[in-house]
């Protein structure tokens, strides 16, 4: 999808958060920073819908802090033989607690994020994945957070 | 296996059947309805008032349970197609200072301290670095290493080669599909 200046402005604006008011898209259209584009509520909604349809937006909702939600969270990694990568990735993906799952170019080749309803569940799910795949799961829980900013300039 | 001892839950979830908040969290997994009054639409779907939905979402953000309520972009669709987990072996006494310096630099979306796993894994500082191609990422890493006092320290770049799953955590009890 080719993004124009209006799309880029909306993407950059909406990554900072939607106004929590009855008519949030009308509120965004009326903001001074958006004035130059002459948008109205319907146009904002239409643009956002097109961006979502095109897959530019992966989600529209809360960006959670897992610990504050009372849940558990950990990065995890496995050394998966290349010929088993697709099959093991599918087994790992099948766990609903797996939020992200990537192959990386390293001997520890599969890296995934476990997000669980309780902190104790992290170890249980890791053990279940080990049992399912026959491969060791190494956990890398966060010890300190220095930065987390998932906004990208469009 | 040791697990995140540092992340003690600040909000204990009440036991018992799912309540209004669980219904809201489950509904939010589907994404915000793109209509003029999205919070009214959500409220109608789960039997809450528009004002109640807005208040509950505001509560998520104000308590820090969510850092914001907005869009999360697919950075690959914006052209950031080269993504690397860049890991560094930083002496423990320097890791806080280096982490603080790395956070907030251009191209760094995440910077965490995590445990080493010797002998296979000597690295204790994890960053995610994004660029439009691999050379841009490599150049950024050099720039960060020089600018943040990391030159000469052991490091590795683990480029993302496949993306098997990228979703939000599933919150809201009794809502697993």
TrEMBL record, chain B:
Domain Siroheme decarboxylase AsnC-like ligand binding: 78-165
Catalytic activity: siroheme + 2 H(+) = 12,18-didecarboxysiroheme + 2 CO2
Pathway, per record: Porphyrin-containing compound metabolism
Keywords in alphabetical order: Lyase
Enzyme superclass (EC): lyase
Region (Disordered), start-end ranges: 1-23
Superkingdom, taxonomy of origin: Bacteria
Enzyme Commission number(s): 4.1.1.111
Residues of the Siroheme decarboxylase NirL-like HTH domain: 23-64
Similarity comment: family membership: Belongs to the Ahb/Nir family.
Protein's name in the database: siroheme decarboxylase
Organism annotation: Azospirillum endophyticum
């Amino acid at each position: 999808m080719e993004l124009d200046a209006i799309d880029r402005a909306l993407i950059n604006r909406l990554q900072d958060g939607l106004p929590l008011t009855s008519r949030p898209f009308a509120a965004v259209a009326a903001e001074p920073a958006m004035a130059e584009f002459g948008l109205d509520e319907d146009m904002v909604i239409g643009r956002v819908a097109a961006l979502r349809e095109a897959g530019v937006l992966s989600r529209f909702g809360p960006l959670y802090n897992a610990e504050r939600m009372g849940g558990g969270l950990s990065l995890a990694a496995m050394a998966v033989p290349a010929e088993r990568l697709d099959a093991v990735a599918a087994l790992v993906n099948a766990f609903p607690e797996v939020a992200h799952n990537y192959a990386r170019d390293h001997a520890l080749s599969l890296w995934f994020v476990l997000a669980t309803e309780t902190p104790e569940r992290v170890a249980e799910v890791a053990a279940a994945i080990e049992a399912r795949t026959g491969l060791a799961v190494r956990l890398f829980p966060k010890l300190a957070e220095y930065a987390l900013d998932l906004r990208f300039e469009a | 296996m040791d697990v995140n001892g540092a992340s003690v839950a600040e909000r204990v979830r009440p036991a018992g059947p799912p309540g209004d908040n669980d219904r809201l969290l489950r509904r939010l997994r589907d994404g915000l309805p793109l209509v003029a009054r999205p919070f009214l639409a959500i409220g109608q779907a789960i039997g809450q008032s528009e004002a109640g939905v807005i208040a509950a979402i505001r509560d998520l953000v104000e308590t820090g349970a969510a850092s914001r309520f907005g869009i999360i972009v697919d950075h690959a669709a914006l052209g950031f197609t080269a993504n690397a987990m860049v890991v560094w072996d930083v002496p423990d006494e320097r890791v806080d200072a280096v982490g603080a310096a790395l956070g907030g630099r251009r191209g760094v979306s995440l910077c965490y301290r995590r445990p080493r796993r010797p002998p296979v894994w000597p690295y204790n500082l994890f960053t995610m670095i994004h660029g439009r191609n691999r050379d841009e990422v490599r150049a950024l890493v050099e720039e960060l290493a020089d600018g943040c006092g990391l030159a000469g320290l052991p490091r590795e770049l683990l480029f993302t080669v496949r993306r098997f799953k990228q979703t939000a955590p599933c919150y809201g009890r009794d809502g697993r599909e």
